[in-house]
Design a protein that fits this description.
Number of helices: 9
Low-confidence stretches: 153-162, 167-173
Radius of gyration: 21 Å
CATH class of one domain: Alpha Beta
Shape: flat
Largest sheet: 3 strands, mixed
Structural class: alpha+beta
Mean pLDDT: 79
Distance between the termini: 55 Å
Strand order of the largest sheet: 1-2-3
CATH superfamily of one domain: CBS-domain
């Protein structure tokens, strides 16, 4: 049975913190700290034009040792602004985030900012895991893969089993829920072989250190 994901309007946070194009970067940093948020949307006359995330601050300010006194939001914001509509399915939105290597997705209807969703929000939404099954991880950044791994390894729902054979080459997030040709009884032969090999390698390392 196919489980449809929810629409973004059911998941998104509607109260989004914004700042203007000419806002000092230091003020943007203070806003993020005050509200304990990971991003601020940059708008001009109500129109969303860009986004500044914690990562933008690190890459474009801290790492480049820029003086923030005269630095404005427009100079470090990420643009063009990748976005979705409130009527979009959560599974489709998650695919967009993987494609663009982003973890924050503004929701815009008719040019107006109406909400914001994060990759973590979407992964916890019903039907998104199924929607992502079979998606290629080629080109997906390490930080996004880490978010996916945490969810699939430790998530409450655990709706999929990761296939080491497929995952190693970055081809898929996991099995297609149904048992494939590699399943024998109630276990996956590939997983069993992989675990056995890891155990053998571990024992070999321990043996070398004790000799």
């Amino acid at each position: 049975m196919i489980t449809l994901s929810q629409k973004l309007r059911k998941i998104m946070v509607e109260k989004v913190i914004t700042a203007g194009l000419d806002a000092p970067v230091q003020d943007v940093a203070n806003i993020m700290n005050k509200h304990q948020i990971g991003c601020v949307l940059i708008v001009d006359k109500g129109e969303p034009l860009g986004i500044i995330t914690e990562r933008d601050m690190i890459k474009r300010v801290v790492c480049k040792e820029k003086v923030t006194e005269n630095l404005r939001a427009m100079a470090i914001m990420s643009q063009p602004l990748v976005n979705a509509s409130s009527n979009m399915w959560a599974g489709d939105a998650a695919k967009i985030m993987l494609e663009w290597n982003i973890k924050k997705l503004p929701v815009i209807d008719e040019g107006k900012l109406v909400g914001l969703v994060t990759l973590t929000d979407l992964l916890g939404s019903e039907g998104v895991v199924e929607a992502l099954n079979g998606c290629s991880l080629n080109g997906v950044s390490k930080r996004l893969k880490k978010t996916l791994e945490i969810y699939f390894d430790d998530g409450v729902k655990k709706k999929t089993r990761r296939c080491p054979l497929m995952y190693k080459d970055g081809m898929s997030l996991g099995c297609q829920l149904n048992k494939c040709m590699w399943w024998t009884g109630d276990e996956c032969a590939i997983t069993k072989i992989s675990e056995k090999r890891e155990l053998e390698e571990f024992n070999a390392e321990v043996s070398c250190t004790t000799e």
